[in-house]
Amino acid sequence: MQLDLSNHHCLGAAILGVLSHVIFFIRGEWHMRGYLLTKIYVAITIALLYAEYRYRSSPSAAFQAAGKIAGSYVASLFISMTIYRKCFHRLRHFPGPTAASVTKFWHLWKCPGGKNHLLLEQLSKEYGSFIRTGPEELTIIDPTIVSLIDGPKSQCTKAVWYDIFFPQVALNTTRITDDHANRRRIWDRGFSPAALATYEERIVLYADLLSFRIEGLVREQSPIGIHRHNEAAVNVTEWLSWFAFDVMGEIAFGKSFGMLHNGKWHMNTRLSVDAMDMLGPISPAPWIARIVLDIAPWLPVVRDWFSMLQWCRDCMGERLSKKEAKSSDISHWLIEAFKKDLPTSNRQWLDGDAVTMVVAGSGTVAVALIFAFYELARNPPEQDRLLSELKKIDIRDKVQLQKCAHLTAVIQETLRLYPPVPTGGYRVTPPSGLFLNGTCIPGNITVVTPKYSIGRLASCYESPERFVPERWTQKKEMIYNGQGFAPFSGGKFGCIGKSLAMSEMRLVIALLVTKFKISFSENEKGETFLTELRDQFTFAPGELKLMFSIRS
Ligand code: HEM
Hints:
The chain is α+β, with helices and mostly antiparallel strands. Helix content is 56%, strand content 9%. The chain has a 5-stranded mixed sheet. Helix 10 runs antiparallel to helix 17 (347-378). It binds protoporphyrin IX containing FE (HEM).
């Protein structure tokens, strides 16, 4: 009689599952090894199948036995993880959906369409300011957390999310603090007041071109747009994106992408917008993102992603090959450091930062502008207030424009309601942890601080859902607590392009509002535009058409 050992094997596999959890997986970071572990698991399962096939009488029996053993391992591993995460983990006392505390698959399941900003908003209503949104992750919706994690004294580091981009290295994705500091010093040269002044001169030209092109649409000089008397329906999602990308092409690589001029998408900039689609559904679980990138490079969205990276590399390659070094773009400073062989200045960093310039510098400005015009169209009196402020000054004079309090307030209110980076900016707490209003946040925990929800807290803003720019000027009593307002983040990882972005936004809003009256068309109230809004680390808005009519 043959002894059936399969139950013993299953028991052994189950014990191995528990041991591998408590000895290995419970410690350190594993998100970069997902693909390797999957391959090892599949290889061992195939080996088991082969062994069982030799031992068993039929292939189906071999399949069954091998499946039981491999399944026992996985089941016990997950049971061990579940028990640990629910009953023993340092975050076990924090409220949140049960499934979220056990696995990040829950998060992927809940927001397949890139609606993370809405999901976190809904969770905050259900669970309050502290929500356990992952086994090792806390989402904190409290204005005080912002300076704790992104203030000048913060010891927090960047979370595993930034490894999605590996092997790409760049200023905003490196998780090595010293590398970040070295690279940031190089970038700082490209954002000195002198460098900024040269960029700003050219922004005026692009803003004028945008205004001129919209005027062309209204005056029927262009086939694009539906004209009616002295007004035209303008797809502001496209035109403002073209502006932001053209400006960034000029400032990053010394060449425009030509979209304002041509009135259509440049193939590769469109690609870079589409490529961001990948970040919507997979951002909540970087380890799954890594597996998808490694295992399925043929998926259309992953292909777009790699093509986008390649295109950014090509832009940098082209810029590198230019003999005449132009000191008036950001690349000039990065290339100079590369030629001097400064720390963190090899070709890989140059390529990575080419992506950073395109992604961080264009989509953010575009989305802020699109929302500013959306709100101005919804609130015509705000256009009148801007007009009366702007008619007294020379709009093309940056210093005068900076002094326009209402203009700045319109931008701040837009960024409060629609922060271009709505939920991203994940950080890891220092090993000693953090204290927030008497609550201890353990060390080495990922902290998510959604700017979208913090900006809409009723405890911080009166009528938080309403667009009221005056709350930043004459009606300051409408802000109970403004500590959480940080659309550009802060501290060592804060936005380096803040001043540039503010200049772009001030100028475009001022130019267009003084020249055009902006309103909704008959059939457009912006509902679809809002429904289509996706959180893909940066916000990706849907199509918005607004009526532009030339002011008399
Ligand atoms: C309205 C416009 C903008 C907003 C709201 C914005 C917001 C932000 C935020 C929230 C971060 C932190 C991201 C993180 O923690 O991962 C960031 C980082 C960054 N931004 Fe901006 N940004 C804007 C425009 C720009 C522009 C025009 C540039 C120009 C190139 C730029 C370049 C960068 C860079 C390089 C970083 C990484 C900084 C670092 O890690 O040291 N941004 N931005």
